[in-house]
């Protein structure tokens, strides 16, 4: 059985291309999870505990097609693909149903969650009641979700200061999981601003997000000092590029310590008029690689 949530769209959800912004999809997933938890816990007779909840450990999000604004709500289907001792995994699909019964699918995602005791600041094991509540939504799992491992060399990474706003905080006084997507998005924009002069003589080419893998390592809190987001272009292909990032508490330890979240994002070069991916003109990728010191993936020569 799959849980269905009908999510209304908002005009403010759109980006400069007229598509629903990639961050907003994760907001839709959060709304759908809240509805799912309300339904399954009520059905199992499990009461919410004031100081307990479920925190997101990892998101794996694949964007399949752009979604435009409309009055018809998007459908979010959610189901359980794995239950472990201290975590469980939900798979999701966001779509509109066509009159002929087929689907226009915009996104598929996987979220790993863990039950958490907030006053103690630590996870706990799933109870038998929770396992029984999740069981009706269980389906056969695909490949197991894996941690997001990135390599962000500081010598060629771009630093972006991340300022936490009061409105970014959830009921547990942590930064909400969706806001991390916004932070990484802001940092990517900072990377592209550095390319402005290098790409001045080329036609304007947009990019859209095709895949985002994000792992949460430690909570971010509200404070006046900014956190650091370090981003590096790890690959430039014929129609896409990959940016790897780390959110770090600069006031803590240095080096690999103090990491709060990791992200790997695949961006596709996009023709807005044709609404499809496009290969940039000769020299475009080379210009990016020269400015950012990024490895360039050269396609094999035609036979």
TrEMBL record:
**Lineage: superkingdom:** Bacteria
Q: Which residues form a coiled coil?
A: none
Please give the organism: Nocardioides vastitatis
Query: Per UniProt, which keywords does this protein have?
Result: Hydrolase
GO-annotated molecular function: hydrolase activity
Q: Which Gene3D superfamilies match?
A: Hotdog Thioesterase
Q: Name one Pfam family in it.
A: 4HBT_2
Where is the organism placed in the taxonomic lineage, from the top?
Answer: Bacteria, Bacillati, Actinomycetota, Actinomycetes, Propionibacteriales
PANTHER family assigned: 4-HYDROXYBENZOYL-COA THIOESTERASE FAMILY MEMBER (PTHR31793), LONG-CHAIN ACYL-COA THIOESTERASE FADM (PTHR31793:SF24)
Which InterPro entries does the record cross-reference, listed alphabetically?
A: 4-hydroxybenzoyl-CoA_TE, HotDog_dom_sf
> Does the keyword section mention Hydrolase?
yes
What is the protein's given name? Acyl-CoA thioesterase
Q: What is its EC number?
A: 3.1.2.-
Q: Which CDD domains match?
A: 4HBT
